[in-house]
Design brief:
- By secondary structure, the chain is of the alpha+beta class.
- Among the domains are: 50 residues, no CATH class; 140 residues, Nucleotidyltransferase, domain 5.
- It has a six-stranded mixed β-sheet with strand order 1-2-5-4-3-6, sandwiched between helices.
- Strand 4 and strand 5 form a beta hairpin.
- The longest helix has 16 residues.
- It is extended, with a radius of gyration of 36 Å.
- The termini are far apart.
């Protein structure tokens, strides 16, 4: 079929537009196709490249088993959920940490752990949560990662519990967590690690005192992670290669199926929901801005409280004054107070 001929182009340009595919087919084989036909053909061609996403979830248990066999000391946790006793297990979460990551992190990395997450742009969605550290050369070093359904408090508590049971308790390792305002992460940190530092640091040097210090030894004021031996220890343990999929061993456990995608009712929102105390960068705040009157352009009050040209009369008295002014200028008055009989001469 002709859709098999475009998979090579889609491999180089996965974001090939439907209109571009239609124009390409028209030039190559002179066939005018509808947009719906081109869309279905492009989806089929992408399936030839990436494979069936739904069937790949059934290989996760075998994949986890091969990680544990080829890299002794690693840890893989696969969590599933079932709607009822007779249903197949649905994929929910997965935690992966290789042996080299734990050994290198505890042996030579800095005691700082960055927590962050990102969206998975696949058919079934999800979130990729990761724990990142830095070595003595200030390079990024991944420690652990997990795939969860949503970035909520429950998912963050699950990965933090797995991290503490796997790597070690943060209180005992004197770890410092660094993150931004991730939803669900702050309450999860307060619940699990209330005594662990979770903020950003800025170190200041007192130059006045530094001038009077003599005979300083850098070894006395340098963290051990910056030593050469620690840096070599960080990348000493390799991650062994894994055999191809055809050589995988079966785990003998029920194969999980694709996760359940929960779609909220209504139209999808284009912007994320902000917290109550989170500033909105698209809206100008009126905090610390002086009031300015729209009539007299003075600061300190608005137009309702403006006292310029105030005569003290009511609205009815103002209308009466304006009508008298019109009648006195020669215009006919619409207000009649009463008719008088003409006097006889």
């Amino acid at each position: 079929m002709w859709q098999k001929g475009i998979w090579r182009i889609l491999g180089k340009n996965p974001n090939w537009e439907v209109s571009g595919v239609k124009h390409h087919v028209m030039q190559k084989i002179s066939v005018d196709l509808s947009l719906s036909q081109v869309y279905r053909a492009r989806t089929a061609a992408r399936g030839l490249i990436t494979g069936n996403e739904e069937s790949q979830y059934g290989l996760l248990r075998d994949y986890a088993e091969m990680i544990l066999r080829t890299d002794v000391g690693s840890r893989v946790i696969l969590q599933t959920e079932m709607e009822n006793e007779n249903a197949k297990p649905n994929f929910k979460r997965m935690y992966i940490r290789y042996n080299a990551q734990k050994v290198s992190f505890l042996g030579g990395c800095r005691p700082f752990v960055g927590l962050d997450g990102c969206h998975l742009k696949g058919r079934f969605g999800g979130q990729l949560l990761s724990a990142i550290a830095k070595d003595g050369n200030d390079n990024i070093f991944p420690v652990a990662m997990a795939v969860v359904e949503q970035e909520i408090k429950d998912s963050w508590m699950w990965i933090l519990e797995q991290f503490a049971d796997d790597i070690g308790r943060p209180e005992e390792l004197n770890l410092v967590f660094i993150s931004d305002r991730q939803k669900g992460l702050l309450p999860a940190m307060k619940t699990l690690f209330s005594t662990v530092e979770h903020r950003r640091f800025v170190y200041k040097i007192d130059n006045e005192r530094e001038r009077h210090v003599v005979d300083l030894k850098p070894e006395d004021y340098t963290h051990p992670c910056y030593y050469k031996d620690a840096y070599v220890e960080t990348y000493k343990t390799p991650i062994p290669p894994m055999p191809g999929q055809s050589e995988w061993m079966s785990s003998g456990q029920p194969k999980p199926v694709a996760p359940i995608v929960y779609k909220p009712p209504g139209r999808l929102t284009m912007k994320r929901k902000r917290d109550a105390d989170e500033p909105n960068p698209y809206k100008v705040s009126r905090v610390n801005r002086p009031l300015r009157c729209g009539k007299c352009h003075q600061e300190g009050y608005n137009a309702r409280e403006c006292k310029a040209n105030v005569t003290g009369e009511t609205a009815w008295e103002r209308r009466q004054r304006l009508q008298k002014g019109k009648s006195g200028s020669g215009r006919p008055s619409t207000h009649r107070q009463g008719s008088q009989a003409p006097s006889s001469s």
